[in-house]
Amino acid sequence: MSDPEAVTAPRRVGLIGYGLAGSVFHAPLIAATDGLLLDTVSTRSPERQAQARAEHPQVRTVATAEDVLDRAAAGALDLIVVASPNKTHVPLATAALEAGVAVVVDKPLAATAAEAEALAALADHRGLLLSVFQNRRWDNDFRTVRQLVADGALGEVQRFESRFERWRPQPKGGWRESGDPIELGGLLYDLGSHLVDQALTLFGPAISVYAESDIRRPGAEADDDTFFALTHAGGVRSHLWVSATTAQLGPRFRVLGSRAGYVKYGLDPQEAALRAGLRPATEGATWGVEPATSWGRLGAEGDAPAAGTPSPEAGAGQPVPTLPGAYPAYYAAVARALRDGGAPPVSAIEAAATLRVLEAARRSAAEGRAVTP
């Protein structure tokens, strides 16, 4: 007979990396999830080890990823989360799967679709969960777009515009902005992975990719201003921008359909809340909720402007309440999958499809033509 306590005991999680991804996103969300226990954190930095213990007093801190893998091999962990620099994702995920534990990997899963598919095959062979942290599927604005599309509020969607734009004229340096191909730096892979994942989630596979990619800032090494366009198999066109050189920001989303359009400015509030030290468990029902002044608008040219719109540029249409952001839903789904043996919230095969588009975008930008992913 199975041990009831073993069935209901929380899954023990080892977190590799305690930089931005590990400390701001993964650790707080793991800690907020019923059925998961943040057991071990690895970081070489003594300061970050102290930070991890201060923020999560029950946690064990170790210096290296190998220490986490050793605990997994000894049966002391059930899940490893890889939140270390991009170049480490494939080797660490491989080692964790070979150690016999489930794995969550921060995006991008790999450099290429082929690497992602190989990891998926290994996880399948071992009978282990492998998921990719594409948290922006649970952004408040994307959840709202997804509902509007599903409800047919826009009619037949013709064009989907999505932007992650910033005004950062001075490069920050570090591996995220490195020009070394091994580091997988640059905005195309960093933020573009979110935009592509969202577009494919909404409209299915892309059959054509065209991209224009530049390095504009003095001293920058990696792409910092990229536009890319996808043609989906169903006919929708997605126009996507990632940029650190945008002095005037465009809308986060503009979705145009045969019946109406939806325009939404600003960013989901969850990252800012996590950075400020707020936590889903303490914020309760207000987590991920934005004020009505931030809501997007749904309508068409000629519709009456929304009451209280701040400027003529805000346009026509009526405000649409933005659904709450729901980052905690990702790890709740991971916990369910570990408990019940179900599918992960984001699969490695889905990540491979995203990477296939990102690879095609790089190829298109280099060749100056549209390509097939």
Automatic annotation (TrEMBL):
Record organism: Streptomyces noursei (Streptomyces albulus)
Protein name as annotated: Oxidoreductase
Domain called GFO/IDH/MocA-like oxidoreductase: residue spans: 142-262
Family in the record: Belongs to the Gfo/Idh/MocA family.
Top-level lineage group: Bacteria
GO terms for MF: nucleotide binding; oxidoreductase activity
Residue stretches making up the Gfo/Idh/MocA-like oxidoreductase N-terminal domain: 12-132
Alphabetic keyword roster: Oxidoreductase
InterPro entries xrefs: Gfo/Idh/MocA-like_OxRdtase_N (IPR000683), Gfo/Idh/MocA_oxidoreduct (IPR051317), GFO_IDH_MocA-like_dom (IPR055170), NAD(P)-bd_dom_sf (IPR036291)
